[in-house]
Design brief:
Length: 348
């Protein structure tokens, strides 16, 4: 199972694709956005992801109870319109940010939230699309995104099993099989005990897709653990300094934290390797320190081998310990000095 985004092949034995999410952490300051993207590159990200919407393309300006945020989130007390007015990335920035990111060697793509944003991103020629958790039920939008024929990464934060099946079928219906699913817990920040990372290998097995994690926890433990469970894409929010504030600051990583996470991810994937029972030359050499049968007392020719004069000890130059019972009560063929490794030539 593989997909290709830009020059990166993702899945199977390829390296984990690490996405830095800009989200609202530019605080609607273009220079801050640019500095943040530069810091993402320095921290080791493979890609920067943004979000393409305006308050009016994602909701309406209403303060009736349906549009008030009161679910125990960081954003309670605002209306949806107010939140998105604060968080959106101005569209006129986006082609410029893409050029800056690509000049740095980063892959740049976005989450669209309506057809106009898809069309806008198509004009920018982004190499992939991300579907945010809360859009997974918008099947007409997902069909439209998938119809562009580019890889589509889908967060499953609010999805039931049947929702995931429906969205995959929607992509395939329009001829797009380049699908990745990200385990996601749609809480901001997400508690570790609600992450259920063991879902990641099950997603891969059930839906036969590339899988990964979109992580909104505090810290990096969940991201690193996900790699050990088979995540081939990890996504984490990135901010230059949490003290800057903003809607996503609390669950975003600062540059040094992100860099440490990248190092840990690379170390874990390197350590995972492949299923392998072959011994390297170094380990074969180390077997010399394993146990084997030695004479632990001076033994005269004709003496019996006993549990007193033969023991299984380190190092490993004598007979395998499995032969101890076969040797006991047999006789020594010649004099054997204490500290001699046993071999069959010493046994009558």
């Amino acid at each position: 199972m593989e997909i290709k985004i830009g020059n990166k092949t993702i899945g199977n034995n390829n390296s984990v694709f690490i996405i830095a999410e800009l989200s609202a952490n530019h605080l609607q300051n273009f220079d801050l956005a640019v500095d943040t993207i530069k810091a993402m590159k320095e921290a080791g990200a493979d890609a920067v992801k943004i979000q393409t919407y305006t308050p009016d393309t994602i909701t309406i300006d209403s303060d009736n109870e349906y549009f008030q945020i009161k679910q125990g989130t960081l954003w309670d007390g605002k209306t949806l319109y107010q939140l998105y007015q604060e968080a959106y990335t101005p569209w006129d920035w986006q082609p410029k940010l893409k050029e800056i990111a690509e000049d740095l060697g980063l892959i740049f793509f976005s989450s669209p939230f309506d057809r106009t944003s898809v069309d806008f991103l198509e004009d920018m020629d982004v190499p992939a699309y991300k579907v945010a958790s809360f859009e997974i039920t918008d099947i007409p939008l997902i069909e439209y995104i998938a119809s562009k024929g580019k890889p589509i990464i889908i967060s499953t934060g609010i999805a039931t099993l049947s929702d995931i099946e429906e969205v995959i079928n929607a992509c395939k219906r329009v001829g797009n099989h380049q699908i990745a699913l990200l385990k996601c817990t749609s809480a901001y920040p997400a508690p570790l005990e609600e992450m259920n990372l063991n879902t990641i290998p099950n997603l891969k097995e059930t839906f036969k897709t590339v899988t990964g994690l979109s992580d909104h926890t505090l810290g990096t433990s969940a991201t690193i653990a996900s790699v050990a469970l088979g995540a081939k894409i990890v996504e984490k929010h990135f901010i230059l300094d949490r003290n800057l504030g903003g809607p996503d600051a609390a669950f975003s990583l600062e540059p040094e934290e992100f860099k440490s996470m990248v190092i840990a991810v690379r170390e874990v994937e390197n350590a995972l390797g492949n299923v392998n029972y072959e011994l390297t030359e170094k380990i074969k050499k180390s077997r010399e320190f394993s146990r084997s049968l030695f004479a632990v007392e001076d033994i005269k020719a004709g003496d019996q081998f006993t549990e007193m004069n033969v023991r299984s000890i380190r190092p490993g130059f004598g007979l395998h310990p499995r032969y101890l019972s076969k040797i006991l009560r047999k006789q020594a063929r010649k004099d054997i000095e204490r500290g001699t490794p046993l071999d069959w030539d010493l046994v009558e």
